């Protein structure tokens, strides 16, 4: 999928800035750089529960450069605004995450109110695609 980028400046929302050279504004969307979040295990979650997230980073791992030893290859994982906490001794810059295969990392569910929650896994290049049919979950309090 290709599209051209255009800009509407905040100082003049009605003005439209066009590229002098359209080739410089061509954006190519490549699905191979969209990680996939497969599922959470277990599917019933509550605050403080230990769970695993299963995902495939696709080609994103090839775009990640040097990261600090206390950082993860991905930015974060959330259930709505509730952060999933990762033990830095288990998930860090040295954690082996393989491209184009299912990976799993353990973590702890943060503060989680009752109800349905949207999953969101952030990477340096954007959000992971969530496979809704397999990533079903619920919380119990």
Q: Explain this structure to me?
A:
There is one protein chain. This protein has 141 residues and is mainly β. The chain has one domain (31-139): Sandwich (Immunoglobulin-like). It is built from no helices and 12 strands. The chain has strands spanning 2-4, 26-28, 36-41, 44-45, 50-56, 76-79, 82-85, 103-109, 119-123, 126-127, 129-130, 138-139. The strands form 3 sheets. It has an 8-stranded mixed sheet with strand order 10-9-6-7-8-5-3-11, with no helix packed on it. A two-stranded antiparallel ribbon has the order 1-2. It has a two-stranded parallel ribbon with strand order 4-12. A hairpin with a 2-residue loop joins β9 (119-123) and β10.
What's the order of the H and E elements? EEEEEEEEEEEE
Low-confidence stretches: none
Name the assembly state. Answer: single chain
State mean pLDDT (0 to 100 scale): 83
**Rg, Cα atoms, Å:** 18 Å
Largest sheet: 8 strands, mixed
- Determine the structural class based on helices, strands and strand pairing: mainly beta
Order of neighbouring strands in the sheet with most strands: 10-9-6-7-8-5-3-11
Note the gap between the termini.
43 Å
- What's the CATH topology label? Immunoglobulin-like
Tally the structural domains.
1
Shape: globular
Helix content: under 10%
């Amino acid at each position: 999928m290709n599209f051209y980028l255009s800009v509407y400046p905040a100082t003049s929302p009605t003005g439209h800035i066009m590229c002098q050279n359209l080739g410089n504004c061509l954006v190519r969307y490549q699905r191979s750089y969209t990680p996939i979040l497969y599922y959470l295990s277990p599917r019933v979650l509550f605050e403080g529960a230990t769970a695993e997230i299963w995902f495939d980073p696709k080609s994103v791992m090839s775009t990640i450069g040097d990261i600090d030893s206390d950082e993860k290859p991905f930015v974060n994982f959330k259930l709505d605004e509730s952060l999933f906490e990762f033990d830095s001794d288990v998930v860090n810059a040295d954690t082996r995450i393989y491209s184009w295969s299912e990976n799993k990392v353990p973590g702890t569910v943060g503060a989680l109110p009752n109800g349905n929650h949207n999953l969101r896994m952030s990477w340096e290049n954007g959000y992971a695609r969530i496979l809704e049919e397999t990533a079903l979950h619920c919380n119990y309090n």
